[in-house]
Structure formats: C-alpha cells, structure tokens
Hints:
Distance between the termini: 53 Å
Number of helices: 35
Radius of gyration: 39 Å
Low-confidence stretches: 111-135, 137-172
Helix content: 55-70%
Amino acid sequence: MPHTNLDTDRPLSDEKADRFGFVGIAERLAPSILEAVKGDGMVIGLEGPWGSGKTTLLNFLEAELEKGKDKKTHIIKIAPWLNGDVSNLVSSLLDPIAEVIEKFEEAQLGRKSIWKKAKKKGGEFGELVRNYGARTGRVLAPAARFAEYLLPGAKAGADALELSSEYLEKLGRNPTTAEVKAKISEKIAELDIGFVVILDDLDRLEPSQAVEVVRLVRSVADFPGLVYILCYDRDVLAHALQVGLSVPDGDAFLQKIIQLTFNIPLPEPFDLRHSFLADAVEIYKEVTGATEIDKDLYSDLRSAVDREGGGLRTPREVKLALNAIRFCYAGIKDDVFFPDLCRLNLIKVTNTPLYRWLEEYLGTRSVVVTGDGMVTDEEKIQMGTRLLDLLPSDDATSTRSIWSLRQFIPGVVKADTPSKRVFEQAGQNETNEAITGKRLGSPIHYRFYFALTSPKTVMAQDAFRNLIVLAGSDVEKLTKELIRLGTERRASGLTWLEHALDRMDTATVNTLSVPETVGLVKAIAGAADRISSINNETRPFSVSIEAQAENVVVDCLWRLKKKDAVAFNDLATWLAKDCQSISWLVGKFFRTQLVSHGVVEGRGQPPESRLFDDHQFQRLMAVLKKRTADPATKAAISDLPRLAAYVWGWSELTSKQTVRRWATGFVKTDENFLYFLNALRSWSMSDKVYYPLQKDAVTAWLPWDKTVARLEELHARGVEEAATLIEAIRIGRR
C-alpha cells in the first residue's frame, strides 16, 4: 500500500528512535543537573532554533533525570504556552511545586502534626509568601496560593490576614523583599527537597506571558534546591522580552535570568541528509513495491540529497520535506522522476523563494516550448534578476549557484546580462531526455511536481487491455487500431497512441504471453511509418512516437529472447526482411543497434547488454543492406517520413559515399533540393522554438558553397521557401 503515515512532528520519547545523538547528550547532562539541585538553585537555558529537537532532548533528559534522581528530588515539566491568562500561567508554574511540598509534609509529619504547625505559623508564613509574591511578581493570587501549599493551614487566612503582629514585632518594622526572601529560603531548606522544573516552549509565549514567567523564575530560582531548565529559541524569547518590557535589549535582560546556557548542537555533518535519504528510499520502496532501489536511481537520489540537503538545518525541516513526498508520491509516481521530486521538496523547505521561482519559470517555459506563448525581454530581465538574487554564488559546486541549478533545470545560465540568464537555448537531445525521464525540467511533466496534475484524458483500462488481446489474436486489426489512435489527439495535443505506448512499459510487457509479445511488435513496427507520415510535424516538447515505438519493441524482444529463443529469432528476421516501415527500421530501430555494436560512435555496449549477438547482428544487417540497395526502395525515399533520420541510418549501415551519390542525383530538381534541405533542419529552443539549418547537416551530403549559392539564386527568382531556408542558415550560425 502507498505510504500514507505522515510524520506528525511530535517530539520523540523512545530512545531507540534517536537519530541525532540526543540520548547521549541527555545522559551526560542529567548528572550535572541533579548535582546542581543540591546547591543554591540555578536557571539553565536550553537554547535552539525552532525544529532543532529541543523538546525531544527534554524528553530524553527527563527520562535520564528520573533514572538518576533520589527520592527527595522531584521532576516537574510545564508547557506555559498552553495556559491562557497570566494568572493561570503563573499558577501552572507554582502549583505543582507546592503540591509536591504538601505531599512530602503529609508523609513526613503526619496530618495531626501538620495542623498543629499550621495553626501556629500558618498566618505568619502565608502572609510572608503573599508579601513576597506581591513584591516580586505581577500577579498576587498565585503567590498567595503558593503559601497555601508551602504550609498547609495558610489558606484559611491568606485572603484576610495582614503581616502577623508576631512577625512585625520580631522585626520591629515592615520587612524588606530581601528579608522575606531569606525567610522563605530558610523554610525551603528545612524541608530538604529538591526540584528540577522544566519549562518548555517559552518561545511560544506572548510577550506579556514571557515577561511574567521570566519574572517569576527570577523571583524564586535562587532558592536552595530549585533548578530550572528553560527551553527556548533565544532570538524569539529575547524579542518577546524586549517587546513585553519595552527595553532596548531583550537578550541582555535574558542574561540576568539565565546562569548557564546549553545550545542544541548542530547535527553532525551529513546527519540530516543521511536521515532524509534513508527515509526517502523507504518511501520509494513502499510506494512502488520494490524490494530494492535501482542502483542508477539511487545514485541520482543520493546526488540530489547531497546537494540540496546541504541547506537542511533542523530535524523538523527533514520531516517537512519527507511529509510532502509521502503525501503526493503515490499519486504521481508514474509521472515524475523520484530524485527530482526529492530535490524539489528539499528546495521548498530550505529555499522557498527559489521553489516559487522554479514553479513560475518552468510553467512559463512550458508555454514557450509548446508554442502557445512567448516571453518578452522585460519578463526575461525580471526573472534573470531575481534568479541571481536567489543564487548569487560564482562557485559552480555551490547549491547557491546558477551553474548548480543548470544541472537539472534547462535554459538557465550564469551571465552578466539578466535577460541572458533564462530561457537560453536547450538542444533537442536535452529536452528529449528530460521528457523521457519525466524530469523536473520536462515541459510535459513539470506540473506534476507542483500541482499533482494528472492527464485530463486517460485511456480506460478495458480499452487498453483490448489492445493486448488484439496483439495475441488479430495483428492486422491491431495495426489498424494503432494507426487510428495515431490520428486522434487528446486535449494535451498528443495522440492517443502516444498515451498507449507510454503505458506499455517494461512491467506491462513482462506480463504478456509469447503470442501477445510477437503480435505487439509486428503491429507497432508495421504501423510505424504510417504513423510517422500522419504525425510528420516536429514537436520539440514531446518524445517522438518513433522513439516510443522503439522502446516498446526493444522491451518485447528482450522478453522473447529470455522466454522463447525461436520466436525471438523469427521475429528479428521478420523485422529486417519483411517489415514495411523501412524508414523507422533504418533511421531508428536498427540505427540504435549499430551504436550498440560499436559500428557507430565508438566501442558500443558490452556483449551482455546487446539485444542481438554478433552473428545475429551481422545476418540482420546484411538483409537490411540488401533492402536499402533495392531500386524500388531508393525510388520511394522521397515518400519516406523522417527523411533525415533515414539518410543518416542508411549511411551508417552502408557508407556516406553511397548516400552522397544518391543525394547528388536526388536534388537535381529544385523541388527535391528544397525538400531535402528542409528535411535536414534540426530544432533548438530558447525564448521560442527555432528550426535552424546547420552547415554540418548539409555538408555531410552536399557541397556547402554550391548549396548556398543555389538557394540565393532561387530566392532571387522569388521562391519563398528558399528565403525560409536562408533564414534557417542564419539562425544556425548564431
């Protein structure tokens, strides 16, 4: 089942769940704190930014204190921010201490002795505490209530009695605050009880509440046997005190209260990243059902986490990023590249302005790529200026560098001119790879990362399953159905066939029977050229149908190779000898095999990674060479779709000289000349899509100077298409 258990960000209390060494810190702090209880009292500040794990450390510390304390030491933990008015807030601090004292006296003296003692000294000592509370705190009632529990019996006279005549006679005057404090200290020392009072989340208090708690702590903290542990973000609490007290420096005031501070240590280098990576891998496995993560995918994931995870500062940020992934990945797993999803959510947590910039930029770029809009120079300047503000570093290895962003976002460049930093040209291969890999930089898939948007139209499961049934029962009917699907477009502009081919992934192919596998290959390969002729426009924002068809056919052949060697050999022979989609075979499918076997572009793949062994490959190439040399095939070249791809594949299968001889004869007519040059145009993209005619593409087959001169001659004669090609050459020179 998908991973739906979001991390609620509750502080940890199970020591086994500690990932950041908090248990070890607690084990070493606890003995020193318990030793401090035996002294004159102390206020300890446990400081750290929000999300750094202060409350988790407090939980572990409380557990260690409970383990190490004696019977006379009591642990009290309070969250003052949960209280409402100031009176309740102060009461929540004093009442638990008083209750412990009362229970202790009950156990030590017995009820009868308590009441005798109360009758004699209750009024005197109760008013003593009341007087002290009125002088040192802003709220009278809680201090008087403290007297009730400090000496049972005081409650009876706390609201009415003035300082007792006995006490006044003893002092001969009204006592000073210092004298009252000394009297209370003497009483607490007689009880011989120690307290560790933990006050958590002081940085969540309103200024007036923060002032009241800190004042109260200051009033009683130096009594013997009282150790306070205050937990807070120093900057936040200091600001609250500055506002609440109207003082110029809240931090300086805080220093008067706190005798000792301990800062939550930064996680050890890479701890936060390692924690994120481990949980991300588990999310991936749970959502996809995989027992292990693919080695290459893990490498990409680790690289993304190493770079973008460097901005993580607290365990809470780790949880926020992981929760976003847990929440959305199950619904979009088929439409995103998992490492990019992790990368983006790390950016969202650690650099939210950059996250918003990326959403705007990729959305705008997608509109540009599809041809539905264009970007003005002013928009480029604005986006380029903001990008440099967000990523100012000149260090290409820094995550705060545009060069670092360029590794996964196309079209961004570190440049002095703002308009040149964005929407720079990205080649066809780069865009195709982004789309094929469903990367964040893909103009088709980027929105899934931000908006969880699924396709508006999806083929029903029954209809898709019917294609598989036809593959095993009626190849001719399936071929016609695939051609029909190639003519019908969805709301996105892509065809239903592309949607169907995208769903025929490796996992689906591996469920097919041998007849279904063979039938699917014959139908796809048999329809390939017809489909290319129907969809003959260049679409830079989409993986070509030819490439999708090749991917499915290759998956099917690999399955047959492992499952039925005879069927595999027969089908390979049919492809080379009888499949009618000669343009797709030469310009796409077998051209890839030439690369795999090292005939083109160097050494090729290792033997175990090749679809065909050397003997099979040589036999198939011989058959295909014979077909390309056939006069009937040559006569039909002008009718082939994707002419440039066929010509290159043909030259790699035979030789460039063979193709040059054909090209020289083919372009003798002006019509064929213009047709051939148009076929050689590539595409590139920056602020819009361009279709340049590169010099290298022409000189592979025709002499450059003669070609340009002939175009200029045709242009002079008013041939409009010649003017278009001259402009394409100019673009190609930029």
